[in-house]
Design brief:
The structure holds three protein chains of three kinds. Chain A is an alpha+beta fold. Chain A contains 18 helices and 32 strands. Chain A folds into three domains: 166 residues, Aldehyde oxidase/xanthine dehydrogenase, a/b hammerhead (Aldehyde Oxidoreductase, domain 3, Alpha-Beta Complex), CATH 3.90.1170.50; 318 residues, Aldehyde oxidase/xanthine dehydrogenase, molybdopterin binding domain (Aldehyde Oxidoreductase, domain 4, 2-Layer Sandwich); 136 residues, Aldehyde oxidase/xanthine dehydrogenase, molybdopterin binding domain (Aldehyde Oxidoreductase, domain 4, 2-Layer Sandwich). Chain A has a seven-stranded mixed sheet, with helices on both faces. In chain A, strands 9, 10, 11, 16, 17 and 18 form a six-stranded mixed sheet that branches. In chain A, strand 13, helix 6 and strand 14 form a beta-alpha-beta unit. Chain B is an alpha+beta fold. In chain B, a hairpin with a 2-residue loop joins strand 1 and strand 2. The longest helix of chain B has 19 residues. The radius of gyration of chain B is 19 Å and the shape is globular. Chain C is globular, with a radius of gyration of 19 Å. The model of chain C has no long low-confidence stretch (mean pLDDT 94). Classes of the chains: A alpha+beta, B alpha+beta, C alpha+beta. At the A-B interface, helix 1 and helix 16 of A face helix 3, helix 4, helix 5 and helix 6 of B. The complex binds flavin-adenine dinucleotide and FE2/S2 (inorganic) cluster (2 copies). Chain A: Keywords: Molybdenum, Oxidoreductase. Chain A: It holds the Pfam family MoCoBD_2. Chain A: It comes from Desulfomonile tiedjei.
């Protein structure tokens, strides 16, 4: 559609394809280092305790042990928002919290040394959930956070960081409403995005204050910034990225494992690797945030929203780093999907004695929507409205707007996504299948079918600055200098495509530097949905910049003006006069040209994803089967069809749709242990249980992007969970309001099982 | 402890036990012990492949038998190298992802090529295990149905959800083989 | 993994001798799919000093059938059992049970002997040492089963296994261990009235799987499973193995039911119905079997039998749903 491109939109081989299929793609654990030591972490058995005494003498005496560090041995390095959490502290705050670090010549010795460290704890009462954390007189996890409430706002988003949404007059809004729904609903199963590769880092310290880090992070430049503050702005940091075995937004923040490796390297003078095991990854690395909302929603008979009023309770676990940012982005995202003149939506971030929450695909918005849409559903039911129509109606349209993370109001200047939604509904057969609220689409004996719909969109397609260089060489090649590690989205290959398109040279003429903060300019990281729009634009700008320089250099030699020139396959010629040409070789063997590209944040556009799901519920056993998923979106311009397909299919993984079906992190409510920190008890979708998956992808050119594209990969997961809840409720004919809808809950909803201690509070 | 035991135990240790097996066509022999290049009884095959033989293509994700990313082919069968003790591999023939290319021409295995053609991966971490599982399966059953392929791959974790593209990649190899057969 | 010694046994006798040499401090390794996980996570109260490999013993992996029935060597692989033509044809319940285990790769490695002797899968018991574990449950020297106060959605609905082998009084014991028997194959074997032949004895499967809070079987520490014998099944017996899980494959059963019904013109002549994952050991639904005998099998009989099968259950705080699912599975076992 639109322009006829040479590379963009064509199926091309991923740049790293051969490496991946031959096992030669190098992930962190595949890198080899001379004299490498192995680091391990001793972890707390208590959810909340003070360390009274640590005796590490036996561990230190074990042959092969090079360092044992406790909170007493390390500098006052701190992370979190606000920066209050020490890398090792004299207090432990969840089961699995780091107590001591060991470096040894082998992993086995390091592990053995952990057993030799003797720790005496003074166990403190713990608060394992928001209810107990917020109780009057509850034990405090941090002295600095009275009531276990973590202050909102993050300086990363500026002094006016969005902390809630207040506008208009909610009382007036409710007065205008035809229906009002109210309730308290949660998305509190803290699922895990769970990339296959565990998190880890290798650090090499150089006295007095330099460190080089290789990590599983996909955002090396961001790490450099994060760690700079963690290390009290006293350490010079170089971060190098490699292949990342999946991230789904989680690995942008690996500060703890990075700090462990750095501390151990600093203590030993040797490179140290700390690689989490899968169970550490699952029990001591970040989860989704826990989300609960108490709200009232006012709506007119035609589905127009009149008021939204309530409080969003956000369970951040034992600390927060990105939670405030997620609250800001999530609140803005709610405004994008629920255009409404009157708002009063506050939020409270709560600390609890469980493993921390952090960044995950869907970044706050998924979590908020999963709790909010059930209330909206009650309103739609009262007004007997079709949810598809209501969601479509209230999604932001040109002329609409929203507050975004920096607290500013943005007038939306993207496209109207209604067309994509309509197309999706048509493909799904929504109109034929929709039979009304709490009404199954079909009943076959004990099996009932139900449908649901959800929507999500994100204005961080254009978040944060990005920079890139593109360098031209006289031999007709180009090199992209960009700090992006490939984590599965195929974006690195897409950037090469963008440059190839601008410079009109074959893809194999383009190389990329490693993601190395010493070599490349600033890049925030492939997070949110910014890969295509923000980073892509920086890359395009760099390519355009170097092309301009090339033309300026060549123009006098061709006796033409730069703007009259064109280049194809390493030859510059005068438009319309192909014979008046010069090869790039004319630059001379002793010259390269460097273009600089920068992207300035722009929050005026957003993407959109609508999910339609159909489920079958077995009313005898309570089992929910996902039969079909249709995802509808508009990407402006497809860059890589196969890459896009993969990203959209990803809706099923990374704590997306399945977080409504069987995914959950199971926290033992009596002790705080995570009981399913393994790949058997944490459920994930297998090859034998794949639903039919269909994509409806429109390409309505986006005016703001050079190639008219907008990224959608991130948002594929987010509309799914609430759609499933809706579908299951419709199938069984009564409301299910807890995630995931496991058989026990379904059987309880249909009255076959009475009391259940699980999620049975409400 | 009885005298018997020490007899039996000495019988084994005194004769310095060796373990030898073939990986990707090359025979390796190790002495059992706890020294640098020796094989400790506790070493798993995935560890030996990666840390001793430097074959980093075999990925370890869960290290607990639950994800399939460490799958290699041993005596024709897909097995989980994180749940095999190296010391028990004596006499075995093992193929890892590094051994799939044609040793003479260096050409990719048709499954590898098909994974590329279908972009049957995103992060690629699960890919070596997927390919090895599919390879062992197609060796045994060259003309499977789509359902059979799904079943064969049902123990392989892929969090990026490359499943649909993987199925297409494997099916396309099956279809091509079928054409050659005709 | 922590260090252990390792021996390749060349005969059953040698394996037994090695086991007794180590005085209970050695473990057999067959396929290793269960054992190596338990060693890695250091779940045993006492870490073994040695592993005795029995893969080096020749001739233990047979699947033989004759007019008396089926004999399976302890080292027969689960994948081979699934594929065996005779098992598929005449003992399909076993093929189904074996197929329901874990994943294709694990079935390529795992043995039937190991499946029967595997350790329980309770998440308190198996809680990994390295993230603040172990959880000191009853099996680890604690006073109580952690499932009593903790998340017990997958635990027993028929009471606990006592610490010592005083006979299990279903539904009554509250002090023991609430972990459920893990083996899928055990459930099928009891339904087929199989016998387990060990190096010390031969006994009906039902008596072999007698659970205490320390073990799911009666195996002594120096005893090996040698063979599984399944009598020829009655002509026309309707067999079925049904396993409920949140997703397939990989998962251990939430509830499973193995059943064998002998019908004559729709009249039930004999029935064996065994429930798995509902108690520390497989539970034979004797009352349910009795109410069916001599009656024409229809939906009402099936419903009645299902009620009887679960009559003695006493679910814990979070697992009442298992009762309901078990009833459904029993009903389907009898009536489609
Ligand atoms: C991801 C995963 C999923 C699983 N899912 C299931 C499932 O759904 N259903 C199920 O039933 N199991 C399941 N399992 C358990 C699986 O390990 C067993 O089913 C398997 O059959 C064990 O056999 P093995 O030969 O590997 O035993 P091993 O691990 O070698 O041994 C297990 C135990 O049995 C003992 N043992 C082995 N052989 C003998 C013998 N001949 N005599 C006496 N003792 C012996 C060993 O000492 C050890 O204690 C799963 C395991 C994993 C890792
Ligand atoms: S790493 Fe071996 S199965 Fe997961
Ligand atoms: S491609 Fe990432 S896990 Fe499969």
């Amino acid at each position: 559609m639109g322009d006829d491109y040479r590379f963009i939109g064509k199926a091309t081989q991923r740049r790293d394809a051969v490496e991946i299929v031959t096992g030669t793609a190098l992930y962190l654990d595949d890198l080899r280092f001379q004299n490498l030591l192995h680091g391990k972490v001793l972890r707390s058995p208590h959810a909340h305790a003070l360390i009274k005494k640590i005796d590490k003498s036996k561990a230190e005496a074990l042959p092969g042990v090079k360092a044992v560090l406790t909170w007493q041995d390390i500098p006052d390095w701190k992370g979190g928002t606000p920066r209050k959490l020490r890398v090792l502290d004299k207090k432990v705050r969840y089961v699995g919290d780091a107590v001591a670090l060991v470096a040894a010549s082998t992993e086995e010795i390091a592990r053995e040394a952990l057993d030799l460290i003797e720790v005496e704890y003074q166990v403190l009462p713990a608060v394992l959930d928001m209810d107990s954390a917020l109780k009057h007189g509850a034990p405090l996890i941090y002295d600095e956070f009275p009531g276990n409430i973590i202050p909102g706002g993050t300086i990363a988003f500026g002094p006016n960081c969005l902390k809630g949404v207040v506008m208009g007059d909610v009382e007036k809004g409710f007065a205008e409403a035809d229906v009002i729904a109210e309730g308290t609903f949660g998305y509190e199963n803290i699922p895990n995005a769970l990339p296959p590769e565990p998190v880890g880092a290798v650090a090499m310290w150089e006295e007095p204050n330099k460190v080089t880090l290789w990590s599983t992070s996909q955002a090396p430049y961001m790490d450099k910034g994060t760690l700079f503050h963690v290390f009290n702005r006293q350490v010079e940091i170089r971060c190098i990225g490699n292949h990342v075995g999946g991230s789904f937004g989680t690995k942008i923040m690996c500060w703890q494992v990075q700090a462990y490796a750095v501390l151990l390297s600093r203590a030993t003078g040797k490179p140290v690797k700390v690689m989490f095991t899968k169970e550490e990854h699952m029990a001591a690395f970040t989860l989704r945030i826990g989300s609960r909302i108490h709200a009232r929603v006012g709506m007119k008979k035609d589905g127009t929203l009149t008021a939204i009023h309530g409080t969003w309770y956000v369970d951040s676990g034992y600390y927060s780093f990105t939670t405030q940012a997620q609250v800001a982005v999530g609140s803005g995202e709610l405004m994008i999907m629920a255009q409404c003149p009157n708002w009063d939506l506050k939020n409270i971030i709560v600390a609890t004695n469980r493993n921390a929450s952090g960044s995950t695909r869907g970044f706050g918005g998924q979590e908020l929507k999963c709790s909010f849409i059930p209330i909206l559903s009650l309103a739609m039911e009262k007004a007997a409205l079709d949810p598809f129509e209501v969601l479509k109606k209230n999604y932001v349209k040109p002329g609409g707007g929203y507050f975004w993370r920096d607290g500013n109001w943005y007038q939306y200047r993207g496209i109207d996504y209604s067309a994509a939604m309509d197309k999706g509904a048509e493909q799904f057969g929504w109109k034929e299948k929709w039979k009304g609220w709490l009404t199954p689409t079909a009943v076959n004996g004990t099996k009932r079918l139900g449908i649901g719909v959800g929507v999500h969109g994100n204005a961080d397609v254009g978040e944060d600055s990005a920079e890139a260089y593109v360098q031209l060489d006289c031999n007709g090649t180009a090199t992209i200098f960009l700090c992006a590690a490939e984590h599965g989205t195929g974006q690195k290959s897409n950037y090469a495509k963008l440059v190839a398109e601008v410079l009109q040279i074959p893809l194999d003429r383009i190389s990329m530097t490693p993601a190395d903060s010493l070599i490349t300019p600033f890049e925030f990281g492939p997070v949110g949905s910014r890969g295509t729009y923000a980073i892509g634009s920086a890359v395009i700008n760099a390519a355009e910049d170097v092309k301009r320089r090339l033309f300026e250099f060549v123009a006098p030699k061709l006796g033409a003006e730069p703007q009259d020139l064109e280049t194809v396959d390493g030859v510059v010629f005068v438009k319309g006069y192909p014979e008046k040409s010069l090869k790039w070789r004319a630059l001379g063997y002793d010259r390269t040209l460097l273009g600089h590209g920068r992207f300035e944040p722009d929050f005026t556009v957003c993407n959109c994803m609508m999910s339609f799901v159909e489920v079958e519920v077995d009313t005898e056993t309570g089992k929910v089967t996902l039969l079909r998923v249709v995802l509808a979106t508009d990407v402006g311009q497809i860059i890589d069809p196969q890459g896009l397909e993969g990203q959209l299919n990803g809706a099923l993984g990374s704590a997306g749709i399945d977080s409504a079906i069987f995914e959950e992190t199971i926290l033992n409510h009596s002790t705080g242990h995570i009981l399913n920190a393994n790949l058997m008890d944490y459920k994930w979708r297998t090859f034998t249980e794949l639903p039919a998956m269909e994509h409806v992808v429109l390409e309505t050119p986006m005016p703001t992007h050079r190639f008219h594209a907008v990224g959608v990969g991130e948002v594929a997961t987010s509309p799914g969970p609430s759609a499933v809840l809706m579908a299951v409720s419709n199938a069984v004919g009564s409301w299910l309001h807890e995630y995931p809808v496991t058989p026990d809950r379904v059987l309880r909803a249909i009255g076959k099982v009475g009391y259940s201690a699980r999620g049975g509070k409400k | 402890m009885t005298a018997n035991k020490s007899d039996r135990v000495t019988r084994e240790t005194a004769a310095t036990r060796h373990v030898g097996f073939t990986v990707n066509g090359q025979y390796h022999e190790f002495r059992v012990g706890s020294g640098g290049i020796e094989i400790s009884p506790t070493h798993t095959l995935s560890w030996t492949l990666r840390e001793v033989l430097g074959l980093m293509g075999t990925k370890v994700s869960c290290d607990s038998g639950a994800c399939g990313s460490c799958t290699v082919i041993m005596d024709g069968k897909a097995v989980l190298s994180c749940k095999v003790l190296t010391i028990e591999c004596d006499g075995k023939t093992i193929t890892t992802i590094e051994g799939l290319r044609d040793p003479k021409t260096g050409a990719l295995d048709p499954i590898q090529q098909s994974f590329i053609d279908h972009t049957a991966f995103q992060c690629g971490y699960c890919t070596p295990g997927m390919i090895m599982t599919a390879k062992a399966f197609l060796n045994e059953n060259p003309q499977p149905t789509e359902e059979e392929i799904k079943d064969a791959l049902s123990g392989n974790f892929c969090r990026c959800i490359s499943h649909y593209q993987v199925i297409r990649a494997v099916m396309s190899v099956v279809e091509k083989e079928g054409e050659h057969g005709r | 993994m922590k260090q252990f010694e390792h021996h390749d046994a060349l005969s059953i006798e040698e394996a037994v001798a090695l086991l007794s040499d180590y005085e209970g401090k050695a473990k057999i390794i067959a396929g290793g799919t269960d054992l190596l996980g338990a060693l890695r996570d250091e779940v045993f109260l006492e870490y073994p000093e040695a592993l005795i490999n029995i893969k080096t013993i020749d001739g233990l992996d047979y699947i033989r059938s004759d007019e008396k029935g089926l004999a399976i060597g302890a080292m027969a692989g689960l994948a081979d059992i699934v594929k065996s033509p005779v098992v598929k044809k005449e003992y399909q319940m076993l093929a189904e049970a074996a197929y329901s285990v874990a994943t294709p790769q694990i079935r390529n490695m795992a043995t039937i002997g190991g499946n029967l002797a595997q350790d329980v899968r309770c998440w308190f018991y198996r809680y990994p040492r390295r993230i603040g574990g172990p959880m000191v449950c009853l099996r680890k020297g604690g006073k109580f089963c952690s499932a009593l106060a903790g998340d017990n959605r997958y635990h027993s609905i028929f009471g606990a296994a006592a610490l010592s082998d005083i006979s299990l009084d279903l539904g009554k014991v509250r002090k023991g261990c609430f972990a459920v028997g893990p083996s899928d194959i055990a459930v099928a074997l009891i339904a087929m009235d199989a016998s387990i032949v060990t190096t010390k004895r031969s006994l009906p499967a039902e008596l072999f799987f007698k659970a205490t809070a320390l073990s799911s079987t009666v195996l002594d520490s120096d005893e090996l499973v040698k063979e599984i014998e399944i009598p020829k099944l009655p002509m026309g017996a309707v067999q079925r193995y049904d396993k409920f899980t949140l997703r397939k494959p990989i998962d251990f059963a939430v509830v499973s039911v193995a059943s064998m019904l002998t019908l004559n013109n729709g009249v039930c002549e004999d029935a064996r119905i065994v429930l798995g994952a509902v108690a520390p050991e497989p539970v034979r639904a004797r009352k349910a079997e009795q109410v069916m005998k001599g009656r024409i099998v229809d939906e009402d009989v099936a419903l009645e039998a299902a009620e009887h099968a679960l009559a003695g259950s006493s679910p814990l705080r979070m697992n009442e749903y298992k009762v309901e699912i078990a009833k459904v599975l029993v009903k389907h076992a009898i009536w489609g």
